Amino acid sequence: MAFLTTHPDVVPLISYRFGKGATSIDKYLELDGYKSVQKAIAMGPEAIITEMKASGLRGRGGAGFPTGLKWSFVPKQSAKPKYVLVNGDESEPATCKDRLIFEHDPHSVIEGTIIAGLAVGAKMGFIYLRGEYRYLLKIMEKAIDEAYAKGFLGKNIFGSGIDFEAISHTGAGAYEVGEESALMESLEGKRGIPRIRPPFPAVVGLYGGPTIINNAETLATVPHIFRIGGAEYAKLGTERNGGTRLFCLSGHIEKPGVYELPMGYNLKKMIYDVGGGIPGGKKLKAVVPGGSSTPVLLPEEIDIGMDFDQVGKAGSMLGSGGVVMLDETVCMVEFALRTMKFYQHESCGWCIPCREGTDWLKKSLTRLHAGGGVDKDIDNIKYLAENMLGRTFCPLGDAAAMPTIAFVQKFRKEFEDHLDGKGCPYHHSLEHEAVLA
Amino acid sequence: MATETTTIFSPELAARFDKLVTQYPVRRSALIPMLLYAQDEVGYLSPAVIAEVAVRVGIKESDVLSVLSYYSLLRTKPAGKFNVQVCTNICCMLRGGNELFEHCKKRLGVGNKGVTPDGVFSLEEVECIGACSWAPAVQINYDFHENLTPESMDSLLEDYRAKAGK
Question: ipTM of the predicted structure?
Answer without folding.
Answer: 0.96
